[in-house]
Amino acid sequence: MKSCYLLRIVILLFFGLLSSINFAQQILELDKRVLIKTSPMALLEPETIIIQGGIEYFLSPKFSIQTELGVNAGLFGIPSGRGKNEQFSMWRTKNELKFYSKKNYWGVELFFVSKDFIRTDDYYVTNSNKIWYDRAHIDFQIFGTGLKFGRQEFVSENISLDSYLGIGIRSRYRLVNALDISPNQVRDELNENFLTADRYRFNRWDNIPHLTLGIKVGILPQKR
Fold first, then answer.
1. In this predicted model, what pLDDT tens digit does every residue of 114-126 receive, in sequence order?
2. Domain range list for the chain
């Protein structure tokens, strides 16, 4: 997983450098136009590969609306789990209103994530009791919102790079249903971190800060 995050950082730095050295003179100035957006970073998600894309419609040169949908292969019955997660299906949607000043923009984003999967050989806590299981079904949902600051510029006649940084909050709900209770209920604590395990070990809502950093690629169907 560490190598996955490192690869994401390297790709972000590469695209950021590419967008700044050759095409600084490019300005969007799009009006009543559509950009087809793709998210290459979604392919590097730590839990599963996500195929994500959408459109950005420019209401004027200063305002646009962007909507995206991401899915993984598990929605179509294709094995896509990793580690303790099996039969992993996931989809998410993001919607954003952007306010442009030349190539820079501020954005207000709303997003939703839904995960459904089988988790093996783990535990969850309910009523202060730790219950170990061999298999459990987990339904996990995220509702979130945030503010983003980004920069979008053309690197060719019809290809743009959209780099951004955002901060916000996400509310998470999970429901753990143990399918096979483990006969061994006395074990040592598992050596796993919060990102991979703890969020799936209790039944309730919680709220956490949200930080996002990424790159999107835009395709203009027709020349400007």
1. 999 999 999 999 8
2. 2-23+37-219
